[in-house]
């Protein structure tokens, strides 16, 4: 297979005739009442003739001589704001953001003397306070604070948010099925065919402006989220010329510089996150394979095409390192003061992980229901080494006039992960064998996304039109997964390859490609309702997603009884002398068939239209009422195992639904709000789920069975919240929520007699009731000196109930049959993947003047039902992981341009553990990994 | 002075296009009729088989082969005038009867996983395969050059395994399942394929007649990491006739009983890649007159497991001969596990080495031995070199019984060909094993 490697270069060349003798004041103006930007407000310097107006997004900038000024912001019907003591230095940009309120008759003057940058935590909190829907945000400043280099670790500090496996975001403990992640407000495809959402560990924080988690639905957002929607917003363009470089290194004492580290030889470009073709499938899909009795030398030639490395090698690994570079600038273009800006970022990360004594086991309940202790069925343990390279590039180009803005963002993320595992496995039920297993895997993932958007207003900014078009392509290639197992014969201390008990050595190629095209238009009309500001929003969108999934699988078979001669060394299997030839008539050879039942091709379309009205009912009561319509269709092409069911563009799902939503916010006083919201939402089956695919995964020994009868889940959501805002980003909030799920989808054990077959199903209705508390408080109330020290605590407690399936051989029957004496049983259980509680806590010390910042953060979640047991298979719970992290940042230099950061993760040295639990029995390990305690040091420099 | 700032910035976006759609790997050319080598199914250099006849004469009109696949929902007969081909899974569904004439040859196509060829008689379906010693019914691989009217081809032997799937007969008879469910899914068939279900309440269930049938070169990977047995009997009831059946060169077990009550007789398993006769899930029928011949790749000649659920049931094995392969890396005589329950009477054993033994492997089987629900009588053994007592052949790994000492009571050491117990080999003259001189 030929692999093309194309390098696309973007050269952005800008020539700016900057006035070195002058400085600049720039910022945004915010309309507090409307909770929106303040377009076309007047900005002037007191006592001069210099002035301008804000653009349609509330942004302004003024070029002035160095000095100290008073800046006046005014607009008809609004209180005038004067900001004094604004210092402008030569060649620098002073940032100044203000909020304006309608004057409501009186003509008071408000004087503000503080200045705030746009992406501070306080401003995110402001957006939150004023937003009518429930949301939580995280600014790029807080990324630094918690020392998070990637979104997945950063979002964990948002109330009710947890991250599974370092990748998948759960909001309020609900599974990723109920969480939606969008990029710049647009749908992008996920990278894992098993998941509905996008994984977070691929976004470095240096390309992000902020992350918002929306927990209550409004009509303008897609209806397919229930727990929360994570909107990842990439950087726009900076207000001034800015470059930065950063480099970092992470040392994990339990993983790095370890001479036992396990890896295998890959390609020359592995370090860039992709394979150079070394692992390409070496034979044509339509190749037919002769057998030894065909006496055909072609069989030898075919076998020799396969890479003979089947086992990993132990060698010393290095520590993790990362590099980053960003650049950005803004230019005034033409006489009308139009603005052109760009932002570009390139980041690279190379990590090495080594899990010694990794475990993955299977235990069963005793046959006799009078007995309690679990019995082992399969015990697997061993070492796993992983090398991961992540390269991401983002460029953004924006052009802004007084009334329009155009933006083009291009994003490419390239990721390659090479894994080598060496395991020993003991099978104890229905066979009694000991197996030594070597697995080599390589997964190459990428997303390429383009976003073209525009925003326009009319002259008085009463109408705003916003449009977005976003194509993306995501690809996941599992390239040449190699599995080799030797059975150990204790009688004569030999190792042999025995297909009947421990499988033939297997090679697998899996390809997933997903194309996603999304477009939408939003129109906003500002108007008056009940004599107050109101805005009407309406629009529509269309999303097309198409996915192709194929598997190619080959076996290495052995003619003659020669496998004992390999002495258990996987690299002997395809060693030159051990390959079958017409001359030697014994040895290894390749055999394989392309199976249509393993593949599918599906697409879906989702057309939407909505209308919503945001208005003030009284001075203190604000509401958004909305109605959204979505038409969702899913088409599937594939065939089943028997080959008697072949679907060609079968229309599996055809749903047209209305999603009403109502959000109310009542201001008790200027610092506290009461919120109430209702919305209806949906969760739709993924391509893989709504399929007739029957996919066996030799790595996990499990078969996934698609379900073409799967229907979308509908959820009714009710949220209530009280919040109290203090100065300096302080907050206290209490929320309660209730969710009713109709036809929730769970991944179920197919039936109690096929515990290794899994199928997604619409199970009985479920309810989730939860409460959240969030506190952000500084210690200034003790003494003023402690104001720089603040605490952050949020706790979510969630109770979920789902009725068990009462059909024959279903969960209810099967569990009842296997109850132990004294075990309680009411036919309901916790919802799969729903944690009963989540805790985030942190202490933070920030002293911007001296450039010190330090923090300690703790995060955990309650034990969560991971796999629903059936028959004698016990339930598996993900155990709480107590994550305690510390970070310290120090900025240097007059401009605080240099920063050194130190971060220590998982200080408690906790293990990532899932356990089998059964009534009256000791817990047994399902899976165990030890992440160790990584220590990171990084340096960044801005210029 | 105006300063000219030139900001040049380059970002490399790595666009990696992989040609997964247009597969441009060259196809390796296989043997042809003009390559000057005797290969493929040729019977001479570039002649015979798929090539022109070697004698330059006319082979006569070759009847068209016919494909069998998918679900059979009405009665159907496989006649012996053409060669039938199994293409993927061919399922005799509920209510349908598949009749196979004596002398019929059925060849399975190559393929693994969902493509593995297999004949599956589902619950409620029936098979009427009544061959005779003169005209046995033969299931073999598409690669076997056996022709109509022949009893064996010339290009394969018992060491050519896994070239196609196998035969599965599934019934409604009681079986003991994990978690005590009433039915189960046969291994290797995804759980949503209903035709893979077996087990039930009908001890006298009738799946038809399966007589004088030879199953050769099968055992392909059928799916879920499972190689298929030569003959799989899942929950087959006592109303079914299984008599004179041979399995040759199968990757997995020769014959495996998953529960059920059917009586089976006159069985030969030869040179398998796993166990010879394998019993699970409380099979409670009788096996009469059986011969297990081990090969270099074979595992246990007898692999006996107990019930998986609380339902119990015991088998009887009567008149069994086992011929070992002393060079096989594992290849023990018998492994008794997971609460094995049943009786072995009149067993003749020869050809094993000193570590290939009869082993009680767990405490539940040991307890069954103690209380007599696992029993042995009239064994005759040709002792391996270096072994002086039959006691060394019988081992209880749990150490909780007197199994080894007791052996002197139920087993006798004899010289080869002096046996007075074991299978009546005279009825196996029709088999491929006999043709190969394996006994």
Relative helix content of chain A: under 10%
What is the CATH superfamily label of the largest domain in chain A?
A: TonB-dependent receptor, beta-barrel domain
What oligomeric arrangement do these chains adopt?
A: heterodimer
Distance between the termini of chain A: 45 Å
Based on DSSP secondary structure assignment, what is the total number of beta strands of chain A? 53
How many structurally independent domains of chain B? Answer: 1
Q: State the major sheet of chain A.
A: 22 strands, antiparallel, barrel
Fraction of residues of chain B in helices? Answer: under 10%
Number of helices of chain B: 3
Global Rg of chain B: 26 Å
Q: What's the CATH class label of the largest domain in chain A?
A: Mainly Beta
Strand content of chain A: over 45%
Q: Helix segment count of chain A?
A: 6
Query: Could you describe the largest sheet of chain B, including whether it forms a barrel?
Result: 24 strands, parallel
Strand content of chain B: 35-45%
Q: From the 3D coordinates, which CATH architecture of the largest domain in chain A would you assign?
A: Beta Barrel
Would you tell me the overall average pLDDT of chain B? 88
Number of domain modules of chain A: 2
Write a compact overview of the structure shown.
The complex is a heterodimer of chains A (943) and B (439). Helices cover 4% and strands 57% of the residues of chain A. Chain A has 6 helices and 53 strands.
Structure, explained:
The complex is a heterodimer of chains A (943) and B (439). Chain A is mainly beta. Mean pLDDT of chain A is 84; it is low at 1-19 and 105-120. Chain B has 439 residues and is mainly β. Chain B has one domain (67-435). Chain B has a 24-stranded parallel sheet that branches. A two-stranded antiparallel ribbon of chain B has the order 11-12. A two-stranded antiparallel ribbon of chain B has the order 14-15. Chain B is globular and about 65 Å long. Chains A and B meet through strand 1, helix 4, strand 23, strand 24 and strand 25 of A and strand 1, strand 2, strand 4 and strand 11 of B. Strand 1 (3-18) of chain A pairs antiparallel with strand 1 of chain B.
């Amino acid at each position: 297979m030929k692999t093309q490697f194309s390098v696309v270069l973007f050269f952005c060349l800008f020539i700016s005739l900057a006035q070195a003798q002058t400085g600049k004041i720039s910022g945004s103006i915010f309309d507090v009442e409307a909770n929106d930007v303040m377009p076309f407000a007047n900005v002037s310097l007191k006592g001069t003739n210099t002035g301008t107006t804000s653009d349609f997004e509330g942004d302004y900038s003024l070029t002035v001589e160095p000095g100290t000024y008073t800046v006046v912001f005014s607009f008809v019907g609004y209180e005038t704001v004067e900001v004094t003591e604004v210092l402008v230095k030569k060649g620098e940009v002073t940032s100044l953001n203000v909020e304006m309120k309608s004057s409501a008759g009186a003509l008071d003057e408000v004087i503000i003397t503080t200045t705030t940058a746009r992406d501070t935590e306080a401003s995110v909190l402001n957006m939150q306070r004023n937003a009518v829907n429930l949301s939580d945000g995280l600014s790029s400043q807080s990324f630094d604070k918690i020392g998070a280099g990637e979104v997945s670790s950063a979002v964990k500090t948002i109330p009710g948010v947890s991250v599974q496996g370092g990748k998948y975001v759960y909001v309020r403990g609900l599974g990723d099925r109920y969480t939606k992640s969008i990029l710049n407000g647009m749908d992008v495809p996920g990278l894992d065919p098993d998941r509905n959402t996008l994984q977070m560990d691929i976004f470095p924080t240096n390309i992000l402006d902020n992350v918002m988690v929306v927990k209550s639905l409004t009509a303008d957002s897609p209806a397919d989220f229930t727990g929360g929607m994570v909107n990842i917003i990439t950087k726009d363009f900076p207000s001034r010329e800015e470059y930065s470089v950063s480099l970092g290194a992470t040392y994990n004492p339990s993983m790095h510089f370890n001479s036992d580290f396990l890896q295998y030889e890959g390609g020359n470009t592995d370090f860039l996150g992709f394979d150079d073709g070394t692992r390409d499938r070496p034979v044509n899909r339509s190749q037919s394979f002769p057998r030894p009795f065909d006496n055909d030398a072609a069989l030898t030639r075919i076998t020799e095409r396969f890479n003979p490395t089947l086992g990993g090698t132990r060698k010393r690994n290095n520590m993790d390192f990362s590099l980053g570079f960003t650049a950005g600038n803004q230019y005034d273009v033409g006489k009308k003061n139009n603005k052109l800006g760009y932002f570009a970022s390139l980041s690279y990360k190379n990590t090495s992980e080594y899990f010694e004594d990794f475990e993955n086991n299977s235990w069963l309940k005793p046959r006799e229901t009078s007995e309690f202790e679990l019995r082992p069925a399969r015990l697997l343990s061993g070492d796993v080494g992983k090398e991961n390279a992540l390269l991401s590039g983002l460029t953004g180009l924006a052009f802004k006039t007084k009334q329009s803005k155009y933006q083009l963002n291009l994003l490419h993320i390239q990721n390659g992960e090479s894994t080598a595992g060496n395991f020993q496995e003991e099978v104890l039920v229905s066979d009694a064998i000991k197996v030594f297993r070597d697995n080599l895997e390589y997964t190459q993932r990428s997303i390429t996304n383009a976003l073209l958007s525009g925003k326009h207003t009319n002259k008085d900014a009463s109408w705003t039109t916003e449009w977005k078009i976003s194509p993306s392509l995501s690809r996941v290639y599992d390239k040449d997964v190699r599995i080799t197992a030797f059975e150990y014969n204790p009688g004569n201390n030999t190792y042999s390859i025995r297909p009947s008990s421990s499988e033939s050595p297997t090679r697998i190629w899996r390809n997933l490609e997903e194309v996603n095209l999304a477009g939408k238009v939003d129109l906003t009309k500002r108007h008056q309702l009940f004599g107050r500001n109101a805005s009407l929003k309406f629009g529509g969108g269309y999303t097309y997603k198409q996915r192709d999934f194929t598997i190619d699988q080959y076996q290495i078979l052995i003619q003659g009884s020669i496998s004992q001669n390999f002495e258990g060394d996987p690299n002997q299997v395809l060693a030159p002398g051990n390959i079958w030839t017409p001359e030697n008539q014994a040895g290894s050879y390749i055999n394989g068939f392309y199976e249509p039942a393993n593949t599918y091709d599906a697409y879906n379309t989702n057309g939407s239209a909505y209308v919503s009205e945001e208005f003030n009912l009284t001075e203190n009561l604000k509401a958004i009422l909305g109605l959204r319509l979505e038409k969702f269709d899913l088409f599937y092409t594939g065939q089943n195992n028997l080959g008697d069911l072949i679907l060609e563009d079968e229309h599996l799902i055809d749903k047209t639904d209305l999603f009403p939503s109502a959000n109310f916010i009542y201001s008790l006083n200027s610092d506290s709000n009461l919120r109430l919201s209702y919305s209806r939402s949906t969760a739709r089956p993924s391509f893989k789920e709504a399929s007739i695919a029957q996919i066996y995964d030799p790595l996990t020994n499990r078969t996934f069975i698609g379900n073409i009868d799967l229907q979308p889940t509908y959820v009714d959501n009710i949220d209530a919240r009280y919040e109290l805002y203090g100065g300096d980003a302080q907050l206290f909030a209490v929320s309660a929520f209730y969710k009713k799920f109709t036809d929730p989808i769970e991944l179920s054990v197919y039936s109690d007699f096929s515990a290794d077959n899994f199928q997604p199903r619409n199970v009985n209705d479920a309810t989730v009731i939860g409460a959240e508390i969030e506190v952000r408080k500084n210690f200034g109330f003790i003494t003023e000196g402690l104001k720089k020290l603040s605490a952050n605590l949020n706790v979510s407690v969630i109770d979920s109930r789902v009725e068990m399936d009462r059909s024959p051989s279903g969960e209810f029957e099967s569990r009842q049959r296997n109850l132990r004496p004294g075990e309680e049983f009411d036919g309901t259980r916790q919802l799969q993947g729903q944690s009963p509680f989540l805790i985030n806590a942190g202490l933070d010390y920030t002293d911007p003047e001296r450039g010190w910042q330090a923090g300690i953060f703790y995060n955990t979640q309650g034990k969560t039902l991971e796999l629903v047991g059936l028959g004698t298979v016990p339930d598996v719970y993900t155990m709480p992981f107590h994550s305690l992290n510390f970070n310290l940042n120090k900025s240097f230099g007059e401009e605080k341009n240099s920063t050194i950061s130190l971060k220590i993760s998982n200080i408690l040295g906790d293990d990532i553990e899932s356990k089998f639990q059964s009534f009256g029995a000791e817990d047994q390990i399902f899976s165990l990994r030890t992440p160790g305690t990584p220590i990171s040091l990084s340096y960044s420099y801005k210029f | 002075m105006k300063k000219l700032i030139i900001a040049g910035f380059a970002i490399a976006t790595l666009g990696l296009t992989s040609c997964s759609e247009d597969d441009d790997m060259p196809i390796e050319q296989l043997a042809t009729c003009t390559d000057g080598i005797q290969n493929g199914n040729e019977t001479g250099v570039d002649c015979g088989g798929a090539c022109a006849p070697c004698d330059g004469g006319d082979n006569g009109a070759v009847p068209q082969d016919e494909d069998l696949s998918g679900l059979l929902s009405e009665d159907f007969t496989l006649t012996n005038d053409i060669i039938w081909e199994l293409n993927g899974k061919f399922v005799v569904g509920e209510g349908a009867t598949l009749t196979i004439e004596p002398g019929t040859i059925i060849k399975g196509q190559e393929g693994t996983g969902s493509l593995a060829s297999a004949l599956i008689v589902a619950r409620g379906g029936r098979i009427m395969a009544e061959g005779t010693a003169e005209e046995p019914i033969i299931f073999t691989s598409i690669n076997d050059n056996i022709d109509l009217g022949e009893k064996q081809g010339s290009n394969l032997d018992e060491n050519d395994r896994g070239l196609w799937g196998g035969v599965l007969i599934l019934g409604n008879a009681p079986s003991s399942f994990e978690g005590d469910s009433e039915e189960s899914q046969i291994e290797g068939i995804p759980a949503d394929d209903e035709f893979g279900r077996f087990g039930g309440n009908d001890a006298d269930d009738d799946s038809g007649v399966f007589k004088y049938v030879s199953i050769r070169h099968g055992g392909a990977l059928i799916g879920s990491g499972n190689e298929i047995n030569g003959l799989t009997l899942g929950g087959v009831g006592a109303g079914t006739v299984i008599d004179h059946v041979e399995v040759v060169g199968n990757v997995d077990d020769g014959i495996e009983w998953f529960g059920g009550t059917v009586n089976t007789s006159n069985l030969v398993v030869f040179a398998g890649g796993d166990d010879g006769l394998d019993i699970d899930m409380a099979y409670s029928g009788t096996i009469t007159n059986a011969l297990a011949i081990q090969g270099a790749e074979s595992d246990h000649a007898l692999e006996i497991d107990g019930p998986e659920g609380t339902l119990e049931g015991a088998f009887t094995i009567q008149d069994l001969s086992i011929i070992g392969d002393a060079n096989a890396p594992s290849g023990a005589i018998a492994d008794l596990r997971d609460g094995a329950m049943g009786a072995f009477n009149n067993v003749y054993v020869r050809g094993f080495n000193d570590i290939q033994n009869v082993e009680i492997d767990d405490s539940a089987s040991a307890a069954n031995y103690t209380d007599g629900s696992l029993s042995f009588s009239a064994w005759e053994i040709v002792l391996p070199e270096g072994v002086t007592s039959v006691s060394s052949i019988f081992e209880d790994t749990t150490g909780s019984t007197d199994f080894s000492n007791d052996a002197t009571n139920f087993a006798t050491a004899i010289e080869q060909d002096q046996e007075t117990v074991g299978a009546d080999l005279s009825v196996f003259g029709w088999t491929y094993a006999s043709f190969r001189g394996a006994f």
